[in-house]
Amino acid sequence: MSTPVKKVPIHLQSSQNRLLLKHGKVVNAEGVKDADVYIEDGIIKELGKNLIIPGGTRILDVRGMYVMPGGIDPHTHLEADSVTGQKASDDFYQGTRAAIAGGTTMIMDFVIPEKEESLIEAYEKVRAAADPKVCCDYALHICVSQWSDKVQEEMEELCSDRGINSFKMHMAFKDLFQLSDSELYSAFSKCKDLGAVPMVHAENGDIIDENIKVLLDKGITGPEGHDLSRPEIVEAEAVNRACVIANQL
């Protein structure tokens, strides 16, 4: 027979899960105001002055400091492999540790499947790399770099079973990630059906590809060629085209 678990009275619980920030300047959507913040089990429970709190609560005097929500970085590429074979210098441990040091408490990274790789397999690969290392909350965007019935089915599974609600489509990187306009339309439509958020890398990949050929013929192979191959109008055209496609749905 198992022994019933006794609930420990709150005044005997470890003070490590209860924290009061006193005399700070709280910054939120309403503006800046002087207030105390009571936190329990990592959740903000009360905000105000002269709060009644449990005994044993750890108290920090943050007089003269700003108290604000942790930042969310919605676009990171930790441990990512580039199209040229280089790897990001920060892994999930180093990157998220640095994020926390700077006040960012959540990141959103990307799952970028290799050519012909399953979205689910790519997702599991990134989870296996990130889960043992991350120091803060994180979420994942899934890149859709090809279009098929299988991709649609996997998008459904990712949303229903794995909590994914954001998919990224590329309008550039020809022969690697770039989707056609009709595929973009279908991907947007699927996102709408799933209640997911579509996002795009908005550059005209066909024009960039032609510009690169011209620059290489001129002997321009340095980093300046990157900027020259994709003038602002190439991005503006793609942004407008993505909006036009989305507005058809």
Automatic annotation (TrEMBL):
SUPFAM superfamilies: Composite domain of metallo-dependent hydrolases, Metallo-dependent hydrolases
Gene: Dpys_7
Residues spanning the membrane: none
Organism annotation: Lygus hesperus
Domain of life, per lineage: Eukaryota
Reactions accelerated catalytically: 5,6-dihydrouracil + H2O = 3-(carbamoylamino)propanoate + H(+)
Domain Amidohydrolase-related as annotated: residue spans: 66-213
GO biological process terms, semicolon-separated: pyrimidine nucleobase catabolic process
EC number of this enzyme: 3.5.2.2
Record Pfam families: Amidohydro_1
Family classification: Belongs to the metallo-dependent hydrolases superfamily. Hydantoinase/dihydropyrimidinase family.
Organism lineage: Eukaryota, Metazoa, Ecdysozoa, Arthropoda, Hexapoda
One Gene Ontology term, aspect cellular component: cytosol
Residue runs in coiled coils: none
Cofactor(s), names only, from the UniProt record: Zn(2+)
Protein name: dihydropyrimidinase
